[in-house]
Fold this protein.
Amino acid sequence: MTFIETFTTAFWILLGMAMLVSAVGFYKFIYFISIGYGFSVAIMGVAMLVLFYERLSLITILMCILFIIYGCRLGGYLLLREVKNASYREHMKKEVTDGKSMPFFVKVCIWISCALLYVLEVSPVLFRMNNGGYVDTVTIIGAVIMSCGILLEAMSDHQKSAAKKINPKRFCDTGLFKIVRCPNYLGEILFWTGVFISGLTTLNGIWQWGAAIAGWVCIVYIMFGGARRLEIRQNKNYGHDPEYQEYVKKTPIILPLVPLYSVEKYTFLKG
């Protein structure tokens, strides 16, 4: 497919909606990649249900609903934490730039780049429906992996919250955290890997393949960057604890059964 054939009206509508929602980042810079991200994915799920209502099948409806669930869960969780958790807000002031000194043009570039990334992430589902909306075994496998990713994220968030209620000052090493140290990031990777897989048998031409691969590679990179940032923070908070030192030596940071125990030294990872 040519560039024009690939990036149809539906693509630009999704981009416009993602830009509209993620514009909340102009109020607070971090919202470009947090609250704006979650709710952008949710609104794109709604948009695809509307735009392709004549081509929808049970599985493609499910995938759109999974986008809505994923986005609302993530955006709602981040919004609630922002509103109710004063200590978190104080912590983030130290961790993340407020963007106040950033030139407006740079903010606009970041805004557009973020919105474009969000569309690229959902593009395998968009292209499947844009190319006819047919469903095959690969589509079903992708939807199942997406569902597993959401479930894994929800379970890990619940388990960490429960552990912190018992001992707020201790690191979490129970439940899923016995398998990997960042099961929520693993859930993210699973979810978006499912999205990517779901489009493998429908992607047509270099532009569709390029968009789908770019979206998947970028989000995986961001998750590893997030894991690195979390590792650095936890090393500062718990590095003196012998139990924590033992925990990080035997528990992979993000991928189960893969002996990757630290990414702190990989300075090219940003998240």
Q: What stands out?
A: The chain has one domain: 3-250. The first helix runs from residue 3 to 6. The chain has a mean pLDDT of 91.
